[in-house]
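re: the backbone from monday

yeah here it is again, tokenized this time
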């Protein structure tokens, strides 16, 4: 045993909350149970199964629709205090905007069970499972999305807002807008590069603002909760020969696309993004990035009580050598992304262990937006599913140490960490071939037992002692 690195004790105060995360389509199963209508993932897995790496689907999966109490036990076993889960829109309302009581009951039961166990529900309203009937109307490419989201948000606040005190409107628009409406690598498989992603982002922002306003106008006073948005970001370092300005531009194109309108004092999309996309729109009078009018701009400035940040990995920014289509988000940024060969890789092709990137990203957010409250709502490590998941523990510790440094050295306001994920689950296009859970799930057994991995004892010790050695 050689101890190359000096070890430290990291203490976390009682005010810092530890939890775990999941998402409805990835864990629930019950895809057509009790009045639920199909969503865009049901459509994809049923019509294009060959697109999923192992041809699997989440029709049943871990079946949290029936075994949610096992998930709550799993959280309890790990000593966790927050559960970030998402609500399946298609379980709650159908195409005639009729409310599905069975769907409401399911989430009422889950929320009550959490509260009974003293675990805070942190609810994502949309984690990629758009009802198919809304996609059929144009989905995120059509402004009708905003009205549908408002209706849905109202049902959620009314039904669950007495117990849910922290809401997240959307999970990772950077991913679902690019993959869903530009590159066609995730449902609804719309290929409209250079247009579709920006239209999607625009309507997503309008829907977010509408939900925020609704909460302020009709619910905040009585329910006294908070509402934020969940954004995915890498941290971008310049590769040798690339200027820091280019890395900064990339950060603005990825995180800034959505944080600048909401968390900056001037609002609107980042100026560099507006300018570059306009410059690269040569064949039509208007920019491919929709124009944000003053009304929209003002509805978004300050329209979040916290930033929910999903951080997994970082990238080096290099000059663009590959062609990324005639038009696309990536060709608009005008860079390539590469990996530092010193970074250690997880099972997922894209996931490298770069904890320093989280520290640097938190510092960037603090400086850029006057130190907003941040919750790390996803961070996690994929492997083959072994119960002795030391690499996962190591990854998590390294990221918690980075958060600790951001809090104590830099005074960043990070208040919670929810690991991805509470249980192994359906990893989207990768099916069940990569596992992120701190619990395994016995998928072939009728009771879908949740089995603790070694990382559960790590969290148990951490939450008991409020400290870790790393
Ligand atoms: C999260 O997405 C999701 O919210 C969650 O549902 C999912 O299960 C979890 O991560 C694990 O994948 O990184 O620039 O090379 C973030 C994951 C981000 C994975 C984008 C693929 C590829 C682009 N995705 N990534 S990049």
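seq for it, each position gets an aa:
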């Amino acid at each position: 045993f050689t101890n190359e690195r000096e070890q430290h004790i990291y203490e976390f105060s009682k005010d810092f909350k530890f939890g775990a995360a999941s998402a409805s389509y990835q864990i629930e199963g019950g895809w057509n149970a009790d009045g639920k209508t199909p969503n865009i993932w049901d459509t994809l897995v049923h019509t294009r199964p060959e697109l999923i790496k192992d041809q699997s689907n989440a029709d049943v999966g871990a079946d949290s629709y029936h075994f949610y109490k096992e998930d709550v036990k799993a959280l309890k076993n790990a000593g966790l205090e927050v559960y970030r889960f998402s609500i399946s829109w298609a379980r709650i309302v159908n195409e005639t905007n009729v409310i599905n009581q069975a769907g409401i009951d399911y989430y009422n039961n889950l929320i009550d069970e959490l509260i009974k166990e003293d675990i805070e529900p942190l609810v994502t309203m949309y984690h990629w499972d758009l009802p198919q009937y809304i996609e059929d109307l144009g989905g995120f490419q059509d402004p009708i999305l905003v009205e549908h989201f408002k209706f849905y948000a109202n049902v959620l606040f009314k039904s669950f807002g007495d117990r849910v005190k922290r809401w997240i409107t959307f999970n990772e628009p950077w991913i679902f807008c690019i993959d869903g409406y530009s590159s066609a690598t995730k449902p609804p498989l719309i290929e409209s590069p250079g247009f579709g992603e920006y239209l999607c982002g625009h309507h997503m922002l309008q829907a977010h603002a509408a939900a925020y306003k609704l909460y302020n106008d009709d619910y905040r006073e009585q329910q006294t909760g908070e509402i934020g948005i969940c954004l995915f970001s890498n941290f971008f370092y310049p590769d040798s020969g690339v200027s820091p300005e280019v890395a900064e531009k990339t950060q603005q194109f990825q995180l800034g696309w959505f944080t600048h309108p909401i968390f900056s004092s001037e609002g609107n999309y980042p100026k560099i993004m507006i300018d570059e996309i306009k410059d690269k729109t040569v064949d039509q009078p208007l920019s491919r990035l929709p124009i944000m009018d003053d009304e929209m701009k003002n509805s978004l400035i300050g329209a979040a009580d916290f930033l929910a940040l999903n951080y997994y990995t970082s990238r080096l920014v290099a000059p663009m050598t590959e062609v990324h289509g005639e038009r696309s988000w990536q060709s608009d940024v005008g860079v390539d992304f590469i990996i530092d060969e010193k970074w250690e890789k997880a099972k997922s092709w894209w996931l490298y262990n770069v904890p320093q990137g989280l520290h640097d990203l938190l510092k960037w957010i603090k400086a850029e937006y006057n130190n907003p409250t941040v919750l790390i709502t996803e961070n996690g490590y994929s492997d083959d599913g072994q119960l002795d998941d030391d690499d996962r523990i190591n990854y998590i510790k390294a990221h918690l140490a980075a958060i600790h440094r951001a809090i104590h050295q830099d005074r960043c306001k990070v208040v919670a960490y929810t690991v991805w994920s509470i249980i192994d689950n359906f990893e989207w296009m990768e099916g069940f071939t990569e596992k992120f859970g701190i619990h395994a799930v016995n998928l072939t057994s009728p009771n879908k037992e949740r089995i603790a991995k070694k990382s559960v004892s790590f969290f148990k010790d951490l939450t008991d002692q409020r400290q870790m050695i790393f």
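The pocket of GBH is lined by residues 23, 26, 171-172, 175, 232, 234, 310, 313, 350, 378, 420, 427, 436 (CB under 6 Å). The mean pLDDT is 97.
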